[in-house]
Amino acid sequence: MKNQKKIFLKQSVAALAAAVMLSMCSAAAAEPEAEPASTANVQMLVPCGMPFGIKLFTNGVVVVGTADLETSSGMVNPPKEADVRIGDVIQTIDGKPVNSNEQLSKAILNCSGRSLNLGISRNGSKVIAKLSPVQSTGCYRAGLWVRDSAAGVGTLTYYDPNNGFFAGLGHGITDPDTKEIMPFGCGDIVPVTISGIQKGIYGNPGELQGYFSSDIPVGTLYSNCGQGVFGKMNHPPAGKAIPVCPADEVKVGPVQIICTINGKGPQKYNAEIELLNTKAAQTKNMVVHVTDENLIRQTGGIVQGMSGSPILQNGKLVGAVTHVFVNDPTRGYGIFVEHMMAGEDNLFQKKAS
C-alpha cells in the first residue's frame, strides 16, 4: 500500500452480492436483433447473463474508520475532534478536489502542522470539517482510514440496443465497512474468467471465484446506484432482444435464470418465483427459488457472484437475481427489470443534459 507512513489507508475489493463470469463477448459480435414488437410501447432488451469485471473509482474518498494516534502529549484522535465521521466522503482539501488516497496522504504529510479544511459530503449535505494532523512516529498523521476504489465481479443483466447502454448487478456496489453505496467517480468493465466455485451451504453462501482476464476495458461505467451499475458497452453482445415484462404482469410461478458457471457461457436454469412484493422500494421485489438440479449440484443454488443474472418468464425479461439467503442458498431476492430501467433512464437523462 502506498504512503503507509503518511496516513492509515485501507483499500479493499468491494463484495458484490451475486454474479457469474467467463469471457466477455468478442468485439466482432453482431448487433443483437430486435424481434418485432406487437406494439410500439413494448421495450425490447437483450438478456445477457455473462460476467464482467468492475473497476470503480470514487468521487472523493470514503472514510471507513478512524484511529487514535500516539503523540508526545498523549493519545489523540484528530478525526473525532474534527467531527469527521465514518461514511463521510471527503471531496476537497482546502478547496481543491481530492479523489485518491495518495492525494489525501500528501496533503496531510505536507501540512506542517497546519489545519486542513475538508469539504465533506454527508447524507446528501455539504459540511466543512477542520482537521488538525498531529506528529506521530516521526511524521504528520491524521488517523484516517479511507477508500478510493472498489473492484469485483458481476453479471450483466441486459443490453439496450437502442442506445448501447448496459445494466448489471441489480444492486449498488456498497462499501464493505460503511455499508453505504460507494460514491461514483468513474470506472470501467473488463473481461473475467472463472477459476473455481465454492458451493453454497446452509449458513455459508458460496461464491464464484474468478479473476480479471484482461485490463482492456470492454465498456465504461457511468453510474452506481441502488438499482445496479450502468454504463455503455464498447461493442454489442450477441443475442436477440426480447420484450420487457411490466412489473404488474410478473406472476408467481416458473421462471428461468441465465448465468455462467463454466466455460460453456451463459446457460438457462430452472427456478420459480415464490413471492412478489410489488409495494417494495426499488429492490428485493421477489423471492426466487432455484429448482434446477444441475445448478444446485454445482453451486448449491444462488452464490455470491450471480448478482445481475437475468430472470425470464414466458419469453419476457422480468428482472434479475440480486441476493442469496444465507440460511438457504437455493433462495434469494430479485429485482424487477422495470426498476433497473428506471436507473438507466436517470442515467440517460443525465448524459443528455
Explain the overall architecture.
This protein is 10% helix and 43% strand. By secondary structure, it is mainly beta. The protein has a single domain (1-30, 41-353), classed as Thrombin, subunit H (Beta Barrel), CATH 2.40.10. The strands form five sheets. It has a six-stranded antiparallel β-barrel. A six-stranded antiparallel barrel has the order 19-20-21-24-23-22. Strand 23 and strand 24 (328-336) form a beta hairpin. The longest helix is centred in the last third of the chain and has 16 residues, at 337-352. It starts with 43 loop residues before the first strand and ends with a helix. Residues 1-40 have low confidence and may be disordered.
Describe the SSE topology.
Layout: E1 44-47, E2 51-66, E3 69-71, E4 74-76, H1 78-81, E5 89-93, E6 96-97, H2 101-109, E7 116-122, E8 125-131, E9 134-136, E10 139-141, E11 144-159, E12 165-168, E13 184-190, E14 192-198, E15 207-212, E16 219-225, E17 228-233, E18 242-243, E19 253-259, E20 267-276, E21 286-290, H3 293-299, E22 310-313, E23 316-325, E24 328-336, H4 337-352
Antiparallel strand pairs: 1-11, 1-18, 2-5, 2-11, 2-13, 3-4, 5-6, 5-7, 7-8, 9-10, 11-12, 12-17, 13-16, 14-15, 16-17, 19-20, 19-22, 20-21, 21-24, 22-23, 23-24
